[in-house]
């Protein structure tokens, strides 16, 4: 299939997903194979349909073990009746890079697992991996690298995003109602051509038969 025909098919799939209709197993396989084909040729990961606009990075949850703990594996089984779709995606995750440079500027267990903290300096992370870092660390890092902001994920925040360290760091969490029990909103950060940012918050899609979830942050994320 040529690029023009495939782009048209991708648009149809996006429209299908916008209508909350899941892709078929064969469509997921084709999509993942196309993404891997692109990623093997790119220095930065770029999404299949909007490769000049969107960059995807790998986090600590894109491993086979973690996806079996936090619901992705179970969701694939529930929706498709087998583990094939889970395998397509976890194979694709192996191609995702850990970092990206924006306009030639920018900042691997420590990078993926470390969290900002109210206390200054470096600290031992209660997660058992990575470190905690204070505002002084964030300010020094941004100044040394000519940056104004570190945008990161990895921690549940109930409104979907949260500023800290005098706006040197922002946490963005894009999984609504995490683990189907946390009741949190999710958010994405949008940047325009002048690097002005805005946040789009969203709630989880309702699931029939699911009880109401109280918005409470689990101890693990505190």
TrEMBL record:
Domain of life: Eukaryota
Residue ranges of domain Serine/threonine specific protein phosphatases in the record: 57-62
Catalysis performed (reactions): O-phospho-L-threonyl-[protein] + H2O = L-threonyl-[protein] + phosphate
InterPro entries: Calcineurin-like_PHP, Metallo-depent_PP-like, PPA2-like, Ser/Thr-sp_prot-phosphatase
Molecular function as annotated in GO: metal ion binding; protein serine/threonine phosphatase activity
Keyword Metal-binding: yes
EC number, as in UniProt: 3.1.3.16
Pfam family, one: Metallophos
Keyword check for Hydrolase: yes
UniProtKB keywords: Hydrolase, Manganese, Metal-binding, Protein phosphatase
TM region(s), chain numbering: none
Cofactor field: Mn(2+)
PROSITE patterns per the UniProt record, alphabetical: SER_THR_PHOSPHATASE
Family per similarity comment: Belongs to the PPP phosphatase family.
PANTHER family: SERINE/THREONINE-PROTEIN PHOSPHATASE PP2A-RELATED (PTHR45619)
Protein name: Serine/threonine-protein phosphatase
Organism for this UniProt entry: Labeo rohita (Indian major carp)
